[in-house]
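Deliverable D5.2: sample structural annotation.
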Amino acid sequence: MMERDSAGFFFVDALSLCQTSGRPYHLEKRFLHNVNYQTTTTTLQAAEIKRQAFLEARRQKLNQKFLQVTRVVKENQARKENRHLLFLRSLELAESKRNHHLEQRRSASKKSVERAKIIALQHHRKYQAEREQLRRHLEERLEKTNTRRLHLLKLPKSSLLKTHKMREKEETKTMSKTSTTTVPSPEKQRKQSWLTLLQAFRDLGLPNPLHRDTWQEFGPLGDLLRKPQVIIITSKILNVALRKTDKECSRKRARVLLTAYMILMCPAEVLQDAEGAQEQQLRTVAKETLENFESWLQLHDDSAGLTAKRSFQDSWRNFYQQFEAWRTKDHDALVNNVFDYCIELLQLKTLLAENDDPSPMMQVEQQLSEVKSRLRQIGGQSALDRLAVAEQNLDQGSVSEDGPSSTPRSPDKIDKTVNPEEFTKLLSSYAPYMSSAITNEQLVHELILDPEFKLQKYRPRSDLEDRVKTMATKAFFDKIAEEYDRGDWQTSIAPLLQDVREQLVALVRPGTAVHSSICETLDINLLEQQSSKNIFDIDKTLTYIGTIMSHICAPVRDEVIHELPHLETMDRLHRILEILEDMTLDLANYRLRALRPHLMPIAVEYEQSKFAEKMGKGDLPNTTQWIAESFKRLYDAAAGRDPEGILPPKQCNPSLDDTFEEAMISLIMSPDLITVDTCPETLVMDRQRLLDYQNQAQAVTMVAALLMLAKNVNTSKSAELHSLSDKLFLLLEDHSTTVDHLAAEIDAAVAVRDESRLMMRSMVDKTLSHSDSLYSLLSRRVGSVLKSYIHSSGEFVTPAILTSYGLEYVDKPLKSLCRSVLALVLHHRQVYNTYYRQIIRNISVGS
């Protein structure tokens, strides 16, 4: 209620407006005391529906997100696969381009060869026409000369003199005109040069090996052959025959050929044993060589000259090898004779030392000085060193002259003429030292092919076998120690000392002071008596044994022998037995080295006889197939170079040496392993050696291919590639090496990026495949270098050729392989040449 006061203000009564405040509107809905139950239930259901709708929306959103991620992953995988397919297509395209390029080069080479053959045929026809024209011209001149001679016979002498002078003037004018107007062609110059050289050789007056009436005696023939002009002209003729250009060895070859005249015509004066088997064979080969040489000189300009030249080259190689073997034997015999003479003078000097008269001693010393000078000339410094060791042994007595040193202190002399029974017995004595069973024939074969061949001590093949051996040895010596402690001397120490005594006696020469000392001191009966009276001192006996061993052992054993006094008794006895086994092996290896020079002259004949005994009259199927395949390859290649069929089939037949070299190279470069069933019968003893050569050839090819790959990826310095080459060879020697190891080494050497490592690994794997064109190309080039080295008898290709072949960084391993293969080829030519020649004779075409 509102009122107005006196002042004119209005008043409102607010008491009626006061009431209790209610809850806020947004909170009022939460309280259900004024809401019925049905309304509440409807609200909860709506909330649940909203909640389910929210969860479903969330679930759909997550599902859409998952589908989106899956799609992105698939797109990324598809892009990777596309890139991989693109990379593979790029590799295939590169491979096809490379093959296309190689095919183009091959086609171009074929066309060049065909064109060269046409040009060669044209030159041949032109040469034949020129020869025919020259022949007609000579016939006309002869006819005119004959007519003029008949006419002049009817004239008086005064007219003859005038006519002769006039004719000389006319010929002089004609020659001057011809010389100023005509220039001979290179072919004519070459022919004229050869005719001049041949005429100079004929003017030397050498005897004709085909006519015995021209042969000379030893004195006049020797004087003739020693003339410098004879040696110079013969060397030039021989260089033409052998296609040699080196001037350093030409005179040596000429002297060897001239020696063939002496061997053929004066065998009694030249050969020490003219009736010996080696000397008879040498004389036969010398005769064959000279006859082929004379035939080639006569047929040089004819079509048969090429065949005669090949025959001479074959016989020359055979003669040169046998001459070198004979010369080595003769040289060794001369050195041994001079050495023995020096020993006799030294002994005489020792006897004259007690004489008061100095004059004989001075004469002996002067003679000894002259003989030493002669020994140095023919034997070199090694012969003087050997003499110095022998002189020292003479000064010290006989203690140190019986045992082997690094080169044993006193060499055992082997008879120069060894009969077959003694030879077989001698070889059989070395067989027990081999780690596996070996025949005498195999031992001889290894000695000839490997100058460094040594008998090896047997070693356990596995860790288990090594542990078993160590445990058995320890148990044996523990038992020996127990028995010795119990006083059982007979079953413990006696057998071991008897074994030590026998080995020491075998190491010294009978009849010497050392031999007598060992027999007396290590008398088993005496030691048994000492043991029965309890006065036997085993340490003193072992000390004596160690002293003797230090006198007769090689210097390489000194260190281990000096350690013996510091060991326990049984350990010392065990070590003594081991060292004696090594010393016995040293002596056996030394005797083999001493046997080798005397074995060389008879090794070929020995192997031939053994092979004939083993094979009997049976055929050689594997060898025949092996030689026939090589013969067919060479024949087809020769026939392919003559598609017009100008040459007769017989002239396409390869020679024996070419066929054998091709067969050996194809065997070594073959990717197939040489098994026992497929190995040629003549190479059975060399099967493991050939497998090693195969591994070496494959290693050289692989390293060359990998280096070419590394060089293409990143051009590196020569020193870095040489270092990489050495590392790759070391990796290939390890059997656990994989492609990943090789790829990792190349990655480190050429700094390959991380993203390119997978590609590099794939390229390395592809390059090492035998079917890869790069590997096949390098393999053929390695075989070509091998064949060239064998064909030239030891002349390695030039660095320029190696660089063009891509083999400049593997030159040392390749040269080592060439030397090994050449030694095997030369030996097999001598031993089995008869069998190979018969096989080729049976399969020759047009013969």
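Annotation notes: Residues 157-161, 177-183, 397-419, 431-436 have pLDDT under 50 and may be disordered. The two ends are 159 Å apart (CA to CA).
The annotation will be released with the project's public dataset once the embargo ends.
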